[in-house]
Amino acid sequence: MIGPERGREAVVRRKLFTFSVGVLIGLYLILSLWPELFVPGSVKEDLKPSVHCGTVTGITVKAGSTVFTIRDERGFGVKLSYFGEFPVGPEYMGSRVTYKAALKFPEVRRNPHCYDERKILRSDGIFLKGYVNERPDIIGEKGLAGAYAALLYGQKVRFEEALPDDVRGVISGMIFGDTSDIPEDVRDDFRRNGTAHILAVSGLHIGILYKIYEKLTRSSSNPVFLVLLVFFLYSYGTICMWRPSVVRAGTMVLMKAAARTFRLRYDSLTAMSLSALILMMRQPYVIFGNGFQLSFLAILSIKIAIRILPARIPETVASGLAVNMVLMIYQAYVFNYVSPLAVLINLPAIYLAGIGIPLNMGAFALGIPGKGAGLPGAAGSALEICGVSVTRLLVGFNSIPGTMGTLSFDVKNPPLMVTVIGVAGIMFYGSEYYDILRIRKLRKKGVRFFALILAAAVVAGTSVYDPISYDEVIFVDVGQGACVRVRSGGNDALIDGGGNHDFNVGKNTLKPYLLKNGASDLDLALATHEDLDHIRGLEELADCFDVKNFVTGSVRGDVFRLGKGVEIRTLWPEQLEPGEKQENGNSSVFMVDYRGIRILIMGDLDAEGEKEMIRCYSESGEVGLLKADVLSVGHHGSRYSTSEELLDAVDPSLAVIQVGRNNYGHPSREVLEKLKARGIEVLRNDISGAIGLDITVSRIWGTRIKKVHAETGHH
Predict the structure, then answer these.
(1) Which of 40, 158, 289, 302 is disulfide-compatible with 123, CB 3.0–4.6 A?
(2) Of residues 342, 341, 332, the one with CA closest to residue 414
(3) What is the pTM of this model?
(4) What CATH number does domain 46-142 carry, 2.40.50.140, 2.20.25.90, 3.40.140.10, 3.30.70.3280?
C-alpha cells in the first residue's frame, strides 16, 4: 500500500513530467508557426564587413580551418570560420575579441525535409555566422571564468596532441564530445551501429563520472563533497561547451547527489523533467537539436519503455533493448537507417567504453606534458597505454558489422505522424498511468488518451508538410550544379546530380534527399555530360544507393519511359563518336514529357550547340519538338548559352536556373534581361532552394502545371 506521502510525491512527479511534455509540445507548435519568435531583437545581419566584439566560448580546429564560437556582446551566439592555417593558442578561449566580418543568418533548408542549418545552429544558441581572413584580436583582461576556461582548453590541446593519430578523434569524441577529427568511415560505423552516443558526451559519460565520485567519496553525505562535485561538473561542462546532453545529465547527477547529501528521495523522471525545463527556458530552439532529442528519449526509454519487457531479462540487457526499441523509430525518421541488431553491438561497445572513458579521463585529468611522451612514472604510462589500447579495441570491434553489411540498412522516411504514434505509444504502454487504467479497467480514459496522442501526431505531421515532396518534377538544390528529379508513381529518375571537389554531393545531399522524400532506390540516372558539377554527384550516389540504370552519352532518339504518359526523350546530340568525351558543346539535351507538360533540360549546351540543334530540327521540319512549357536554362545562366534563337524555338512560360554560389558570374545579367523582356517567369535555386512543379490531370482542365513550389515560398 502506498502511503500518503509517497502518493503525493507520485502526483507531483507526474504533474512535473506532464508539464515539461506540455511545454515541449507547445514550443514545437509555436516555433513551427512562428520560427522567428524567440530570436533576440539585437540579432541583425551585417552584410558589409564590420568590426564586432564578443567572448570566445568554443574553438574547433581542423586541418585547414578553425571555427570559433563567440558570445556576441549583445548576448547571442556567432559561428566564425577561418579557412587557412594559423596558430590558435589557449589564450583565445574565454577572451574578449574583436574581429572584422560580414555576419549573416545561417541557411534555411534548401531541399524538402533535409538539413536546416539555421534551425540546427539555433538549437546551439548560434544566430549568425561569418568568415574572417585574419585572427581575431584579444582585448582586455580575462575574468576568472575566462581564465579557467583557457586553462582547461590548453590542457585539452596538449592531451590531444599527445594521442596517436589513429585514435585521437575517437578519444576526443568520447571524453569531450568533439567529433570533428574522427575519420568519416569510423564515424559512419558508430552511427550505423547505433553506438554514436559513445562519441557524444551523454548520460553514459556523466554516469561514469558519478560512479567515480561515489567511489572517491565513499557515498558520503558531507556537503563539502557536493561543492566539489559542482566544481567538477562545471569544469567538465565548460570543456564540453555545455552541450544539451551534458546539461541534462549534469543536472540529474547533481540532483541525485544533493538528495543523498540532504537525505531526500530522488526520482529520475522528476530530475529529467526539471533539466528539460531548464534547457528550454535557457534556449527554446534547443528542442530541434538531435542531442537534446536523443538524450531525453534515451532516459525515457530506460525509465518507461523498459517496463514493457519481461522482468526475467537482465537489467543491463533490458536497458539496451528498451533504448534501441525507441531509438530505432527515431533513427528511421531522422537518420534514415535502422539497426535491428544494434543492441548486440551496443552491449559490448558500452562495456569497452565504460573501461576506456575513465582511463582516458584519468590521463587527461593528470595531464600529458609532451606528444607521445606519456605521463611521468609507471602509473601515468599505464593509463595512457591502456586508454589508447581499449579505444583501438572499441574502434576495431565497431567496424566488424560494416564488413558483414547486414546489421543496418537504409530506409525512406516514415511519416512524422507514424513516428510520433510509435514513440508515444510505446511510452504510454510502458507508463504507470497505463497500469492504473488497466488495473481499474478504465478503458474509456485509455481510448481518450490514445486519441490525444493521435491528435498530437496529426498536428506534428501537418506542421512539417511540404508540397514539394509530392511534386512530379523537382529541380533539386545541389549548389553550383544541376539536378532534376522526375517521379511517376513508384518510379524515380534523376537528370544530372551536381558535384563538388570538396564535398560528396551524392552521399551527403542526394541520398538524404531521396530517402527523406519517398525514394528507396533510383530507377534511372541520366547525365547530360561529363562536367564535374553534373555527373560526379550521380557517380557518388551510385556508390551508396541502389541505382538501377546509369546512362551516359545519350543521343538523339533515345527514349526512357517512367510510367504511363511520362517519358524522357533525348533531343541532342545527333551522335557521339566512340570514346568521345561529352563536354559543353555536345551536352545531351533532354525533353521531359509529363502527360503533356514539357520540360526542356539543356545541360551545359552552349549557344553554338543550340543553333546547330535548332538548324537540324528546322531542316527536318521538326522544330516544334523543341517547344516546352518550362526551360531549364543552359549552363547555369551563363552568357554563352540561352540564345535568342533558342528562346524563339522553345517559347517557355517558366525558366528555372540551377545555380549556387559561384565565381563565374552565373546567372549573367544578359540572360536574365532576355528572359525578363519576354515575360518569362524566372526561378533560381540559389534564391528559392528546391523548385517543384505540381502537374495535375483533370477532365475539365486537361494536363497543366497547377502550382510551382519553391522551398522558400509558394507560387
Answers:
(1) 289
(2) 332
(3) 0.89
(4) 2.40.50.140
